[in-house]
Design goal:
By secondary structure, this protein is of the alpha/beta class. The chain has three domains: 94 residues, Glutaredoxin (3-Layer(aba) Sandwich); 171 residues, no CATH class; 63 residues, no CATH class. It is built from 15 helices and nine strands. The strands form three sheets. The protein has a four-stranded mixed sheet, with helices on both faces. The protein has a three-stranded mixed sheet with strand order 7-8-9. The protein has a two-stranded antiparallel sheet with strand order 5-6. The longest helix is centred in the middle third of the chain and has 23 residues. It is globular, with a radius of gyration of 22 Å. InterPro entries: DUF547, GLR_AS, Glutaredoxin, Glutaredoxin_subgr, Grx-like_ET, Thioredoxin-like_sf. This is Glutaredoxin.
């Protein structure tokens, strides 16, 4: 994208700006960071809206754009799309948009911003849920601070040496005192999803990213937190708690025996949507987000829609009658259905309205289709 280079004719950090560039993002999202960096290199003032803090606005933006992925970028009232769309803009079109924002005031039909007086109402969450959100937000800030400009690598070494990480480790110790028994289903989902994602980052920082199958096995079966007086590994959280005590990949036994006190914490049945919220530290994983107990099901459904909209999650060739899916659907097929048809029906019911959904409907109406699974990108985004 040549026009983003320093020294370009549009490089004018000191120029006034009558209009507004709005970016709807999620803290720690690499694509959001790259888009914001590119816009700032143009000398533009960017109004960033964290959709996890302002879910009511995200519903409206999703209606405006027809998309459920982040970032979503607007120049005044003109919707650009995501980071890829920004990068692909022709130089003359980008110059026109930048000129428009600098010279024209914000129109009345521009996308919504949070009201200045808006204050989040304190959630009626258990202390465990509140602590997990605090820990998660702190880890996401660390992730953002040490993410490369292009959003493709993280300097974990520098992150591990930061004072913020030390503070996080001090807070994580408090998990051993939380009370889990009183958590409602929604609180339990948000708590353990946030803790799982934070624990993966913590494990990567302390031990380094696993590089092969054996290291991954050890990582997910030994990296753990002491929570409420009991040890929970990553496997315990994912398969024991969030999947209703089901066997995980390469597991012979269920995570919790009938006499295990942790079984009382497990969800009564599997929640398939968790697979689009858990991030294992690999490039093939869904993006990192923070989840809250309030409206957790909508948040998880939105994560699923975004994952399925991405070609790394699902590809459909209506002409050939082929559907290619992430390995997630192969590893946890039983969570989505016993047959390929049941699994595809589940996917169809959790897609946002899009050309891809229409293509999948066409494939399934044809009655004869082929399902395959794409290679999973286990490579780490750790900066060497």
């Amino acid at each position: 994208m040549p026009s983003l280079n320093a020294g370009s004719p549009m490089d004018g950090a000191e120029k006034s700006q009558m209009g507004r560039v709005t970016i709807y993002s999620v803290m720690g999202c690499p694509h959001c960071l790259q888009a914001k960096s590119c816009l700032q290199e143009l000398g533009l003032q960017v109004h960033e809206v964290d959709i996890n803090q302002h879910t009511e606005l995200w519903v409206r933006v999703k209606e405006l754009t027809g998309r459920s992925t982040v970032p979503q970028i607007f120049f005044n009232s003109v919707h650009i799309g995501g980071n890829d769309d920004l990068q692909k803009l022709a130089p003359e079109e980008l110059e026109r948009l930048v000129h428009q924002v600098r010279e024209e005031p914000v129109p009345s039909d521009s996308p919504p911003l949070p009201e200045e007086s808006h204050v989040e109402a304190p959630g009626k969450q258990d202390g465990a849920a509140e602590l997990s959100e605090t820990l998660r937000n702190m880890m996401l800030r660390l992730y953002s601070e040490h993410l490369s400009v292009d959003g493709k690598s993280v300097d974990y070494k520098a992150m591990s040496q930061s004072l913020s990480f030390e503070h996080y480790c001090e807070l994580a110790v408090q998990l051993q005192r939380v009370e889990l028994q009183a958590l409602r289903r929604e609180e339990k989902l948000a708590f353990f999803i946030n803790i799982y994602n934070a624990l993966v980052i913590h494990g990567n920082l302390r031990l380094g990213a696993p590089k092969n199958m054996w290291q991954r096995y050890r990582f997910f079966n030994y990296v753990s937190y002491l929570i409420g007086g009991e040890v929970y590994t990553l496997q315990d959280i994912e398969n024991g708690v969030l999947r209703g005590n089901r066997k995980g990949i390469a597991q012979i036994l269920k995570p919790f025996s009938k006499s295990d006190p942790r079984l009382q914490v497990a969800l009564p049945e599997v929640e398939p949507l968790i697979h689009f919220a858990l991030n294992c530290g690999a490039k093939g994983c869904p993006p990192i987000k923070t989840y809250t107990a309030e409206d957790i099901d909508r948040q998880l459904r939105m994560a699923a829609e975004a994952f399925l909209e991405n070609d790394e999650g699902c590809r459909v060739d209506a002409v050939k009658g082929e559907v290619k899916l992430s390995q997630i659907f192969k590893w946890y097929k039983g969570d989505f259905g016993d047959t390929d048809e049941e699994m595809l029906n589940w996917i169809l019911n959790h897609m946002s309205d899009s050309p891809k959904k229409s293509s999948l409907q066409t494939v399934m109406k044809g009655g004869s289709f082929k399902v395959s699974f794409m290679p999973y990108d286990w490579s780490s985004n750790s900066k060497d």
